[in-house]
Amino acid sequence: MIKKFLNNDKMSQARRVEIAFEVVRVIVAILLAYALALALLLIFSDDPAGTVRQFIIGPFTNLRRVGNIIEQAIPLMFTGLCMCFMYSVNEFNLAGEGAFIMGGCITSWIALSIPGGIIPSFLMIILLFLIAGMVGVAVASVPAVLKAKLNVNEIVSSLMMNKIMYYLSSFILFYYMRDTTIAMGGSWRLPNELKLPILIPRTNVHLGLILALIAVAVTVIVFYRTPFGGAIRIVGSNRFFAEYTGINVNKNLIAAQIVGGFLAGLGGCIEIFGMYTRYQWIIAAPTAGMDGILVAVLARRKPALIPVTALLLAYIRTGADVVNLSTEVPAEFIQVIQAIVILLVAAQMFLAKTRNKIIYKQAQDDLAKEEQPA
Amino acid sequence: MDLDWLVEFLFTIIRLSTPLIFAALGAVISRKAGVLNLALEGMMLVAALTGVVFSAITQSWIVGLLTAVLGSMLMATIISYCFLVIKTDLYLTCIATNMASIGGTVFVMFLLTGSKATTAEALRSMSIPRIDLPLIKDIPYIGDVLSGHNLLTYVSFAMVFFAWFLIYKTRIGLRMRAVGEAPEAVESVGISVPKIKYISFLLSGVFAGFGGAFMSMSYVTWFSRDMVAGRGFIGMSIMNIANASPVGSLGASFIFGGADATAKYLQLQNLPTDLVFMVPYAVTIIALTVISIVRIRREDRIVHGKSLRRKKATEKAAE
Amino acid sequence: MKKAIRIFIFLIAAVLVLSCVACDKEPAKPSGEATGKKKITLVVQQLGDMAYNDDAWRGVEEVAKKYGYEAKALEVGADQSKYGSMILDVAEAGTDYILTATSIMDYAFEYAPRFPDIKFIAFDTTATVEVSDPNIACISYLQNEGSFLAGMAAAGASKTGVIACVGGVNTSPIIHDFIAGYVDGALYQNPDIKVLTAYSSVYGDAAQMKEIATAQANSGADVIFQIGGPGGLGVFQACMEKNIWAVGVDSDQRAVYKESENPELADVIMTSMLKKVGESLIWTFDKIEDGSMKWGEVVILGVAEDSTGIVEGDLYEANVPKEVRDNIEKAKEDIKNGTIKVKTYFEMTHEQFEEFIQDASKP
Amino acid sequence: MAIEMLRMQNITKVYPNGFVANTDVSFSVDQGEIHALIGENGAGKTTLMKILFGMEDCQTGKIFIQGEESRFSSPLDAIAKGVGMVHQHFMLVPSLTVAENAVMGIEPLKNGIFDFEEAVRMTQAIADKYNFTIDVRAKIKDISVGRKQIVEILKVLIRGGKVLIMDEPTAVLTPQETDELFEQLKMLKEDGHSIIFISHKLEEVMRLCDRVTVLRRGKVVGSGDVSELDEVKLSRMMVGRDVILKIDKPLSEPDNILVEVKNLTHRSREGVLQLDNVTFNLRAGEVLGIAGVEGNGQSELCDVIAGISSYEGGSVSINGQTTMGMTVNQIRETGLAMIPEDRMKTGCSVDLSVKDNIMANRIFSKEFRKGLFLNRKKINTLVDRYIEKFQIACNNRNQLVRYLSGGNIQKVVVARELTSGANVIIANQPTRGIDVNTTEMIRKLLIEMTRENDMGVILVSADLNEILEVSDRLMVMWKGQIVAIFPQADEVDEETLGEYMLGLKRMPVEELEALI
Q1: Is D77 on the interface with B (CB under 8 A)?
Q2: For D233-242, how does the pLDDT look when each residue is reduced to its tens digit (9 = 90+)?
Q3: What ipTM was reported for this prediction?
Q4: Which residue ranges form the domains of chain A, and what is each CATH number?
Q5: Is residue A52 within 8 angstroms of chain C, CB to CB?
């Protein structure tokens, strides 16, 4: 397969080497990170090899764990796509996190406020999706509009926005939908008929997976097959150029971030109705927003790669959970290893010298070939 | 009575602002070299832990403070290595190191003390002394506000000047500003841009180190899990509000400290807690917005045509 | 897209190859089978909260020592979407008892019918929670009752007529319940008392709690009750600096700090409100061992059961006036026999609760 | 016999993306000579110089400085050996002063602190030595382009540079400034400095240089003494065939008015008056050239007409529609296209493909849509046709523009703008810094468009040759005003034009009005 791939005529030789090398690089990076983990574990663990083994193959040892990977990847895909849109116009709007929280919170509130049976559950869930999306739009548009109209730094305003959204959701939860019979900060149980159906029995892989994949597909199409996608890519890659060619920069900037917010809000709703029985994100706010950045950066900001990187991140985390479950290694240690894996995978210059040597050799061969007939 | 309350309130603002000043200066110094340091949070956390651990071992707050700064600089080195040498995405690096330091500090604390919550039970760490300012402390009211703070509070004020001096009066400052503005120009004369960025990051680490030390050796006298609690991010926001000026950061830190102190006192008035918690964040957004509006107004006043056209365009859109 | 698929295939291949390399040893057998010991698994969000989770783990370790069980703590972290599968993992890996904290309770209830051989114990639930399966037991603590006594003691010891409490975070109903009881008790002791209530916005942020406590002290409070796990240390330090009294929480914190490397912190802790999570778990296993444990019910532990209450140590004796102490003794009896019904957060809406504490803060 | 100052031997350079920039290049420079390095864009001149200056490494080859083999891993090494470079794009920090820029990297210290006064003194000393008139305390952002070039040279001299690499130094200068620069370069040469002069402009090479080396496709194709060569020979070496430098153009037959600009006034964001009461017309079928020293309002005029910048007084109408309050897109829809001044910054997006770049200005057009989506088939055929028609050298339509040479990038820009269906084209510096072939092609296209399609072209160029060659009518701008209009561009000579451009002369208002 590799050979066939390398001999693909459509691409230039250098490009082919680059792609093949990229694959190898990611693998080596992961292996290296694991080796590093192994070395560190030697210091305080009785069974470092076992721990590393659990970390690597643990996530594949049974169906439910594989399910865990997929379940975790669903919200990551949504927030990753959200960040793809933010990045596409070169804005570092982090409001995806606030949108995600609010998307889940507001729809839970609505689902609990409207008595069952008034609206058919099928319609209701679609309605909730739309509302969640709109909530996400509202959250993400604040930093977007402030940046576009008033040049307010979007990183700061979105971080502040996330905090405000977190406290707002806590306010809504405690004042309007708290379950008084439980001892934790949670809403009443969400109506059963609104729960997203499970796709794979014995796991929690729910309908959200299909929706997430559809969202990825739609994003890819929007990015590369629609005028809007073309416009935001132009705006994102060179704002001045966009202005000169008559593309309304501000409009597209805001629009892209709004679409991103929509996806994050939708993701929040899908996560709540897929994985939870109540709205209870107050004990610890989900970190899907920040994770979305990791996913999008690892995917090199390409929406088509989002499912891959979301699964990769979910896999690493599931591995960490397995280690936590089956060994004495503290969960915090795994956080450190996880960061190392992410850094090494993202490192662009890692092994770059080797790559350049290969490309140089390739170019020399090409040159030789070219000169022969002359 | 009221005046006493005000004195206390102002004193609180200064105390609350201290770690923010350090964090903001850390953000400023790296921003000047064109790098946005999102990892202040992690740096401060590591500094807080190393300070506590080493001051407990040596029973000297000076050693603790120094090691705190060194710990933070070590983090800066790691981050710089990642994004300057092996070329990882800067934001990703910072987020990943924040993640690693939250986990890593708890892990190290667990190995050392057996507790995952705080070092207070197992380590007797030293605290940095409070200082009474001679003369000033005798001035009524003003003395009560300005004197009696922790040494690091005064250090933070000195650091503002130090940062300003460093940026605008020294060779490395000159180079850092140049790197931030036109890296290719600096490169063309043979100065290594990554090296300057690295140095600015290290300096950022120094400031963050002081901030972390303040958290664990002055504010309180132990390390506890995730004790920086978002102050690094707030420092970054302050830098933004102040447009990366060291002196401006001092002012913005006080605004933020003031908002925070106000929120604390508002809670005593028993307003809904969640809404009170939003105050500092809402204040930030509003402050940024107002500053931007003022800035744009000023420009518009110069370019009458611009506002004229913008007005016409909106009128047209309204139709 | 093709590239993406390829990368993914390579990844999986790499992992498999690697796993083979690492597979030099037989996977370790679950040690329980080998030793024949009974296994207790404590499932909590995170240890290191210096509150009921840590206390529970202390209790579980004690139980393990006492009855020769094997104990393990599983920290499931903050991501609640994983709790279900974590519980399943634990159950399938084989264990005899699963102890869960309240936030994970829902999932224990959900899976209990599927594992009839495993006993589920959820602690720190509400008294009103419905238990349906015979292999579940819930333990509910009436922290409001213990806090009631703490409130009385604080109000009695106060010289300024202002006392305060600091919640570790404002999103935990349990902390609200503590506060409801504390305020109620303070008002019971002295209807004119002013009780200041505030919360930290981040759980465990000691600096913030210190700041709040200092602000409260500046507003005249001279006894401060902390309900904030590790953040409570900040309250102690503030009290030390302001030279006022603090009230500890969950366990006898004065005793804990007396033994620690920072004993001076202990000297501001006038008393501590006790919740005895760890001990209650030991009692529970005592009952299990002697066969008197009732399953399928909520065990409610309050002042009557001596599970919640206050520490009556030397500082308490020295600083709470005699008549107040007598009053407290009487209140204990009244709570036991039901004459006093302590206010609880779980029977209020949040608005009513806010109103209640607001009224208490007015002079 | 001249002493050899430096020699580069058998240099081969392959970029990480596989692009072979130099193949086995050797060349040498003697002490006290000005050596021209010429070639088309993408011939590898700049890369070669970057290797010499230590900014890029090379796979094979050796560098000798005064006979001693040297290996430069950074510009610092090169500077230490006395090699200095003046880059094509100025490498200056705008907010710092001239002195600070000049001493960057060798900053004088006093007690460990940067000594600004000493820096000023050092810079002033060098400036005085070589007769440069410059305010060393001024900030870079406040000084003219010509002065900036001086600062760049100062930077090299202050480090004791012996070899001066000048990368297309005249591209941004007025004729007068160019003359001044050449005088200064000659003085440096007298002083024993060696200068490597990179250029496209053969006339300048003939005027200034002693020896010349020609590169083509990364290889040396010839070298020799300038006195033994002529422009025709050199251009043949550069492009591999004879280039017709004179363009034959059919007579223009001006028709109805396309663009009408009346009393246009515009201020910059800082409040500086940049367009001062500008009035002119553009008719169908003509090329209207706008000459002027850079920074006299030509670019602002283009931006204002295209709607990028606003105006505070006067009016602009295109095809009868007044553009007040219109967005850029609305203005474009009235029939305007524009080739922007800076192709890398505003003319294209280097991170997008050739296809995306060509489609950029018509992406929302219904013509290329199929339902909600883009009509890919139609777009692909069209783009392929343009690639062929405009001879854009690229692997395929999906190649990123980043990997194309300057000339080809400009072809992409031109292809996009000329095919947009507009009948008014603003061409701002359409051929700056690109190879002779492409230059010729673009100039011809512009003329062709006006003659065959009845379009109007506004041409702004710093290249007087181009202005005189291509324009039918000619205007001169000075300080935001129109100071001269020549109805017949081919009847104007460079000297007269230069006087107007420098503001030494201006036509009376009545005369101008009559000519509009």
Answers
A1: yes
A2: 777 777 665 4
A3: 0.83
A4: 1-45+329-374 (no CATH), 63-308 (1.10.3470)
A5: yes
